[in-house]
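Researcher: Sequence recovery benchmark, item below. Answer with residues only.
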């Protein structure tokens, strides 16, 4: 691709063998390209971002899930989009163009669409997919957003976009197809929905 890159893998003590696979990749591609930076236990997504940023040497950071729900084939499109509009953030969207979700049941799709719709109505964020995490950030923009964001869990991604708009950062979008993980289960239950609604109302009151 001609793009200088490094892959930073943050693993919070997951039992699925992620670290072992990452070590094998490190041997194949070298420790300058594959940086395994594990943590002893699950400490949350926001702190994982901060942990990863400490080791990132580039000007841009792409955040993605490592279970291939987010396909790497979209990364060149993110980069093209960023260059095209000199955007501070490029966000993958499941809800625009030919974007979509595969492998979710109707309940999960309704929850995600409902969450997105509510957020659009209350916050008018200027982006079509607020709860996805497949995004490209200018490094200094990500650092500024991490200083501002206080949410945990499902609301965190949404707050990142809302704060970005608040601070005047520019956002581009690339349609992506999201494929639900093949192994393991997503933990979206009643507690997550309640905390999402609380977080949404907090953002509504403070932005």
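Model:
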């Amino acid at each position: 691709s001609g793009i200088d890159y490094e892959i930073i893998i943050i693993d919070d003590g997951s039992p699925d063998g992620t670290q072992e696979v990452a070590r094998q990749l490190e041997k194949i591609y070298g420790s300058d390209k594959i940086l395994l930076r594990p943590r002893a236990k699950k400490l949350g997504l926001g702190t994982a971002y901060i942990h990863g940023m400490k080791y990132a040497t580039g000007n841009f950071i792409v955040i993605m899930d490592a279970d291939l729900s987010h396909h790497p084939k979209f990364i060149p499109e993110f980069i093209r989009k960023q260059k095209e509009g000199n955007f501070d953030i490029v966000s993958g969207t499941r809800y625009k163009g030919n974007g979509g979700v595969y492998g979710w049941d109707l309940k999960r799709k309704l929850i995600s669409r409902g969450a997105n719709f509510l957020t659009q109505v209350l916050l008018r964020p200027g982006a079509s997919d607020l709860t996805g995490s497949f995004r490209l950030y200018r490094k200094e923009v990500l650092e500024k957003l991490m200083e501002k964001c206080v949410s945990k869990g499902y609301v965190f991604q949404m707050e990142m976009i809302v704060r970005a708009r608040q601070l005047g950062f520019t956002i581009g979008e690339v349609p992506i197809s999201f494929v639900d993980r093949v192994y393991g289960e997503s933990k979206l239950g009643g507690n997550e929905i309640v905390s999402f609604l609380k977080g949404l109302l907090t953002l509504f009151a403070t932005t």
